[in-house]
Design brief:
Distance between the termini: 34 Å
Number of domains: 1
InterPro entries: TAT_signal
CATH architecture: Sandwich
Strand order of the largest sheet: 8-9-10-12-11
Largest sheet: 5 strands, mixed, barrel
Number of strands: 15
Helix content: 10-25%
CATH topology: Jelly Rolls
Shape: globular
Keywords: Signal
């Protein structure tokens, strides 16, 4: 995973955080059975690689999934689960043992198995492992909530201001802005995603969120 920034204390802090992520173990037990990588729920106009798709359509490495106006798609790829909301576009690609999730636009709720993941959005990148995150990308800003887990959030406009967070239950939502906005990252609020949706996604993979564990 490559995150470019300035040298100095902030850069060293970022590298230290990413090294910690590499050693971060799974927060939840492995699923007893991984479901087929496919669309599990569809409403409205959903496409995979530009072609109309429905429940059961396979999802493979590198595919682009889009949801039209008033549409929604729930799908899995390996041990990860995704809820893509209306007017969203996302692709998931595996490269050299890492999974990269690119949200071009819209809103995406994701839960992940124990692996290194990079989340890429218009205004910020997030390095995580075995966790859950909500991404909401607009032209003027991007909202990111690490719902639970360990992550390093990096503003594209100021990589040296990266922030490392450890959360259990939506503890550190942030809003990111393009260059020229001051600040480029600030605390935000938990919006447009619910615990019930996280439970639903984890259940597809035979897991429960850590906030549900006794």
């Amino acid at each position: 995973m490559c995150i470019c920034g300035k040298t100095g204390p902030n850069r060293r802090r970022l590298l230290t955080g990413m090294a910690a992520l590499a050693a971060f173990g799974a927060m939840r037990p492995a699923a007893a059975m991984t479901p087929p990588s496919s669309l599990h729920r569809v409403s409205g106009a959903v496409t995979v690689n530009g072609k109309p798709a429905g429940v059961g359509t396979p999802i493979a490495n590198g595919d682009m999934v889009t949801a039209g106006a008033e549409a929604e798609a729930v799908f899995t790829l390996g041990d990860d689960g995704f809820l893509l909301r209306a007017q969203g576009a996302v692709s998931i690609t595996d490269r050299q043992g890492e999974r990269q999730v690119d949200l071009e636009s819209g809103r995406l709720l994701s839960v992940f198995g124990p692996k290194v993941i990079t989340l890429r959005t218009p205004h910020a990148n997030v390095g995580i492992r075995g966790t859950a995150a909500y991404l909401e990308a607009h032209s003027a800003s991007t909202n990111i909530c690490v719902c639970y887990g360990h992550a390093v959030m990096v503003p594209k406009a100021a990589p040296d201001r990266a922030e490392e967070v450890r959360t259990r239950h939506h503890d550190a939502p942030r809003q990111f802005f393009p260059a020229g906005h001051d600040p480029v990252m600030e605390p935000y609020k938990v919006i447009n995603h619910t615990d019930e949706e996280l439970v639903m996604l984890e259940a597809l993979l035979g897991r429960v969120p850590p906030f549900m564990a006794k």
